[in-house]
Amino acid sequence: MELNIQDIQKILPHRYPFLLIDRVLEVVPNDYVVARKCLTMNEPFFQGHFPHLPVMPGVLMLEAMAQSGVILAHHSLGNQSEEGTTSMVTGFDKVKFRKQAVPGDVLEITLRKESLKKRFWRGHGSIRVDGQLIVEALITAMVVPNTR
Q1: Of 24, 118, 128, 129, which has the most beta carbons under 10 Å away?
Q2: Does the pLDDT of residue 127 top 70, yes or no?
Q3: Which domains are present in the chain?
């Protein structure tokens, strides 16, 4: 199943400049998701990180993984997904940054579910550019009510 930006915005609460996935190439509920982020020099974070050598901040690459994970969790939970809830990251483990992401790169973000129990999920995320692994991490998150 493929999702365009309008489909993604129906699921994720994030909006510009913090929506960090452009397209979902594939979602297999209870298994994995593959998403894409196309980086251009117009990304707001490149203005200051760093003017002389624009690189995508690592924390934003992790956020793109987490947003992909929300798409997977949404499709995995199906009817159990409740309106008025949001998935929140509770941790990143075993994070490895292997290469920088720069303007012109197309990030292919994959998140594979390791476990999903009630409100808690865990997955292994990776980002590749031109087939080369640049980031990987284990992500944990939980679904929380929108009470604030």
Answers
A1: 24
A2: yes
A3: 5-145 (3.10.129.10)
